[in-house]
Q: What sequence folds into this?
């Protein structure tokens, strides 16, 4: 074949193209090898590699070195705390409590006619339950979103919960006392003296409960000695027993007052001969309602109170959750029992939501004989 200048130029061009392709392939291979080694380093940055050799080998033979992994714990791992379903349930319960009682407070605040002693106590109970619901939410936030090892955070959460739930229980007792006085002193119940006495009673309740809530912050806690903790850290075992015994005394007093209320109600029913049938039916219904209220209150709080007396921090935490959750549910049913069942509050709710009052809603005012 005769080589012309054109063929020679084509041959040189092809040779340069082959050389370029081979150089690009070599560069790609080197880049792939480098990326592979980098990905291995990124895959396990906690594993270091070292050359191992036999230290007893003193011969002149070449030493055989092997690449062996030196496993070390990862120092950059972040511990993620697992969220307990019980804490989620308590947080949801706290949210429901807050919404219910905020509605009750709004109705009482924007309705000027609801200023009787009974409504003052219902409002105080709603404020206590609202703080209890907010305390449950804050406790969840402090546990999982903020460093709960800080003493201030722990003491603040405990102070809010103790003050709120103590005020809730004592306000229920105050409502029971108010119902008893409305029957026992029916003629003088609506006087100015009764209103003043109600305000004094509310102030006394809140001062007492705030003092109880501040006790752990003032030094009565088990942060320095974990062996003295109760089922609710950082409350000490002795303080928990004292609170539980106090609750049992309050519950016994409520039972006695409700018993006296039933006796007075039946006596009124016997004295009114003209309305005997109506009053008898109304009184029987009222006694059933009081029994349901008392049973619900006892079912919510008695398990937690009894468990606080017999148990301490060494007991399984699931038992604590199983008794705390029903106790918090008492603040869920309080607005239903003491507020939403009241005809005057029902009328205010209907007016606020719909601008009208249903015809089937009872328009007669509550009297001192209603139980």
A:
């Amino acid at each position: 074949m005769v080589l012309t200048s054109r063929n020679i130029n084509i041959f040189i061009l092809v040779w340069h193209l082959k050389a370029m392709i081979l150089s690009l392939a070599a560069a790609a291979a080197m880049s792939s090898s480098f990326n592979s080694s980098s990905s291995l380093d990124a895959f396990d940055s906690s594993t270091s590699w070292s050359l191992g050799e036999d230290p007893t080998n003193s011969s002149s033979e070449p030493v055989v070195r092997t690449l062996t992994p030196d496993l070390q714990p990862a120092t950059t791992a972040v511990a993620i705390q697992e969220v307990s379903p019980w804490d989620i349930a308590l947080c949801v319960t706290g949210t429901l409590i807050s919404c219910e009682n905020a509605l009750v407070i709004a109705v009482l605040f924007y309705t000027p006619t609801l200023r009787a002693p009974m409504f003052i106590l219902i409002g105080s109970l709603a404020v206590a339950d609202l703080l209890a619901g907010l305390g449950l939410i804050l406790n969840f936030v402090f546990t999982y979103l903020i460093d709960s090892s800080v003493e201030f955070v722990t003491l603040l959460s405990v102070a809010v919960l103790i003050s709120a739930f103590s005020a809730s229980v004592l306000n229920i007792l105050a409502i029971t006392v108010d119902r008893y006085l409305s029957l026992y002193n029916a003629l003088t119940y609506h006087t100015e003296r009764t209103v003043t006495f109600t305000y004094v009673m509310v102030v006394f309740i809140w001062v007492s409960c705030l003092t109880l809530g501040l006790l752990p912050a003032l030094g009565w806690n088990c942060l320095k000695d974990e062996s003295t903790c109760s089922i609710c850290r950082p409350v000490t075992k002795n303080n928990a027993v004292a609170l539980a015994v106090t609750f049992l005394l309050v519950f016994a007093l409520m039972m006695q007052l409700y018993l006296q209320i039933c006796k007075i109600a039946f006596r009124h029913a016997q004295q009114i001969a003209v309305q005997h049938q109506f009053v008898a039916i109304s009184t029987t219904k009222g006694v059933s309602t009081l029994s349901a209220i008392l049973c619900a209150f006892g079912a919510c709080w008695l398990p937690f109170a009894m468990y606080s007396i017999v148990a301490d921090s060494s007991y399984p935490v699931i038992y604590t959750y199983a008794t705390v959750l029903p106790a918090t549910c008492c603040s869920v049913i309080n607005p239903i029992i003491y507020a939403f069942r009241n005809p005057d509050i029902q009328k205010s709710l209907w007016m606020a939501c719909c601008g009208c009052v249903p015809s089937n809603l009872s328009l007669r005012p509550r009297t001192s004989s209603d139980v």
